[in-house]
């Protein structure tokens, strides 16, 4: 069964000096302010589209890796994944780097790296970002 998740943003004013608010409609987890400085300069306590993509990618990748490992008979005890999304003003998103550290009994480093590479290729967010360079560092704890 297909699912749809929704969010909406209200932006007020010009790009460089004003700001907006993104609301997570499906989950009801609330609102987060967004602004240009949080996107192209230092974070100003607000989020950015790239940070939201990083959150989506790190969680999707973790789910895909957990599923793959479990299906192979080596369910993880713990996965800690970070996603770093690089944005260059005037160019756009230039890359994503995923870093995962896992606790997985009965698995060696090579098998973990292979499972992580498969998850990187097959998680839906990675597929949605096709055309963007996605790199990966994977290691066991």
Write the layout of secondary structure elements.
Layout: E1 7-12, E2 19-24, E3 30-35, H1 36-40, H2 49-71, E4 78-88, E5 92-103, H3 109-122, H4 124-128, E6 134-140
Parallel strand pairs: 5-6
Antiparallel strand pairs: 1-2, 2-3, 4-5
Written description of the protein model:
This protein is 33% helix and 34% strand. The protein has 2 domains: 7-40, no CATH class; 49-140, GMP Synthetase, Chain A, domain 3 (2-Layer Sandwich). With 141 residues, the protein is of the alpha+beta class. The protein is built from 4 helices and 6 strands; from the N terminus they run E-E-E-H-H-E-E-H-H-E. The longest helix has 23 residues, at 49-71. The chain has a 3-stranded antiparallel β-sheet. Helix 2 crosses helix 3. It starts with 6 loop residues before the first strand and ends with a strand. One of its GO terms (molecular function) is peroxidase activity. InterPro entries: KH_dom-like_a/b, OsmC/Ohr_fam, OsmC/Ohrsf, OsmC_Ohr_Peroxiredoxin, Peroxiredoxin_OsmC. Residues 39-48 have a biased composition (Basic and acidic residues). This is Osmotically inducible protein OsmC. Residues 22-48 are annotated as: Disordered.
| CATH structural fold name of the largest domain | GMP Synthetase, Chain A, domain 3
CATH homologous superfamily classification of the largest domain: K homology (KH) domain
CATH class membership of the largest domain = Alpha Beta
Task: Please give the count of helices.
Answer: 4
In this structure, how is the largest beta sheet organized? Answer: 3 strands, antiparallel
Protein name: Osmotically inducible protein OsmC
Pfam family, one: OsmC
Organism: Actinacidiphila glaucinigra
GO molecular function: peroxidase activity
């Amino acid at each position: 069964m297909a699912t749809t998740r929704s969010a909406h943003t209200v932006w007020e004013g010009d790009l460089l000096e004003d700001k907006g608010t993104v609301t997570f409609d499906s989950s009801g987890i609330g609102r987060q302010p967004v602004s240009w400085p949080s996107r192209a300069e230092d974070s100003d306590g607000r989020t950015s589209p790239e940070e939201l993509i990083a959150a989506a990618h790190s969680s999707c990748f973790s789910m895909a890796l957990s599923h793959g490992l479990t299906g192979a008979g080596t369910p993880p005890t713990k996965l800690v994944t970070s996603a770093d999304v690089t944005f260059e003003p005037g160019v756009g998103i230039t890359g994503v780097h995923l870093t995962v550290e896992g606790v997985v009994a009965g698995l060696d480093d090579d098998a973990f790296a292979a499972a992580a590479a498969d998850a990187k290729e097959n998680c839906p967010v990675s597929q949605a970002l096709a055309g963007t360079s996605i790199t990966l560092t994977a290691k066991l704890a």
